[in-house]
Protein: Coenzyme A biosynthesis bifunctional protein CoaBC
Organism: Flavobacterium reichenbachii
Amino acid sequence: EADLESKLPLKGKKILITAGPTYEAIDPVRFIGNHSSGKMGFDIANEAANLGAAVILVSGPTYFKVKNSSVKVINVISAQEMYDACHLHFNDVDAAIAAAAVADYRPKVVALQKIKKVSDDFSIELEKTKDILSSLGAIKKNQFLIGFALETENEIENAKLKIQKKNLDLIVLNSLQDEGAGFKKDTNKVTFIDKDFKIEPMELKSKESVAVDILNKVILHFSNDED
Ligand code: CTP
Ligand code: CA
């Protein structure tokens, strides 16, 4: 019996995960988006459920489907919708992992009709979206909070700043430097940095394996918690 239990180390834990891009409407037919496939977040959600967790996956537009049918999927489109869905559930969860590539800016006004090509030059005024992860960090109680960081320069320094600014327990730094890592790829090269700034570079590996590594951090946290 003990053996069975150990295969479900996240049994009894509730985990909120964000995944995918967000789409910010320009008009009824156009949006600002990004190339995030959602794979990283979906792999984490699947694996967490396989390890026994009750998983709520808040996902932006993606063609991915969850393999583990116990995952509760909430489909959203915009950053604001993702923010609302996360805040609806955050108080109930034991951990949250923000793998979504949330748009940083959105059109200040959404045109009600399709914008016609009248002038030669055209620009759209943008405004910041809410930072979902920061907002969760600001209200967290016991939740173990994990964020991602995508950096192209001063990677470690910038990631450390994000840990502090967003009140995170762990950040998963994504290297775009590496050929095999990032958007539209099945592999990822990450570095873990914890809230004490302990740095742990990982090998290039499949996103499934990165998901396992991330969840091992969650498991470790909960096992230390119970001691
Ligand atoms: N994030 C979020 N809400 C936003 C923007 C980002 O929840 N509006 C989360 C992402 O899901 C990720 C983390 O914040 O876990 C870091 O995202 P990243 O784009 O690397 O950093 P930003 O804080 O947006 O800063 P910048 O893009 O300027 O580096
Ligand atoms: Ca960003």
Notes: Helices lie at 2-6, 39-50, 79-89, 132-139, 155-166, 207-226. The pocket of cytidine-5'-triphosphate (ligand 1) is lined by residues 18, 79, 98, 100, 102, 104, 129, 131-133, 147-150, 162 (CB under 6 Å). The domain at 2-104+127-226 is CATH 3.40.50.10300 (Rossmann fold). Residues 39 and 66 are 10 Å apart (CA to CA).
